[in-house]
Design goal:
This protein has nine helices and no strands. The protein has 186 residues and is mainly α. The protein has two domains: 83 residues, Rna Polymerase Sigma Factor, Chain: A (Orthogonal Bundle); 87 residues, Winged helix-like DNA-binding domain superfamily/Winged helix DNA-binding domain (Arc Repressor Mutant, subunit A), CATH 1.10.10.
Length: 186
């Protein structure tokens, strides 16, 4: 079943939308959740919550890219669960490392002005990523969006772990410089 048909099922309030979503995107959502959470049970719950949120969001929302919509829902739900689970303890996932690596480039949202600034920052980061060669962009996204480990990224791209680490360090430095040149106070 293609994405347009699945979205149509959501809009028609047809419960087959959930099974069609699970069949087509279940593994994708589960991989995102497992990369963030250290518990398969928590990851499974986040994936199920993703389906519920998708059900509650459509209508009125009609996602342009269903996979990106579901991936974002899963990622946000998993990060929220991660923060709840680790409020008083340190987790065994890639999340603390990834967040620490990128911490100087992101800030929390607050007032409407800060939210506008955050959206502008996101746009600037998107522009930076569009200017990268495809493999470097993919490595960056694998690490900072999907929370893939450095060994996983190295294996996926057929490079050494050191190569991935050096690439990420250089990309973070370039992104930092890029944002400073555009007037972002980091």
């Amino acid at each position: 079943m293609d994405d347009a048909q699945i979205v149509r099922l959501y809009w028609d309030r047809d419960e087959r939308a959930i099974s069609a979503t699970a069949e087509k995107y279940g593994n994708y959502c589960a991989a995102i959740a497992r990369n963030i959470l250290s518990s398969n049970e928590d990851a499974e719950e986040c994936v199920n919550d993703t389906y519920l949120h998708a059900w509650n969001s459509m209508p009125p929302r009609r996602p342009n890219i269903l996979s990106a919509f579901l991936g974002k829902l899963t990622r946000n739900l998993s990060l929220n669960r991660y923060h709840r689970n680790t409020a008083n303890k340190r987790g065994g996932t890639e999340v603390p490392l990834v967040l620490e690596e990128i911490a100087e480039l992101v800030s929390g949202a607050g007032s409407a002005e800060e939210e506008f600034d955050r959206e502008e920052l996101v746009g600037a980061i998107d522009d930076f990523l569009r200017g990268l060669p495809a493999q470097k962009r993919k490595i960056f996204v694998c690490r900072y969006w999907y929370f893939d480990s450095i060994p996983e990224i190295a294996l996926r791209f057929g490079v050494t772990e050191n190569n991935v680490s050096v690439t990420l360090n250089r990309l973070r430095a370039k992104l930092h410089k890029y944002l400073l040149e555009r007037g972002y106070d980091l």
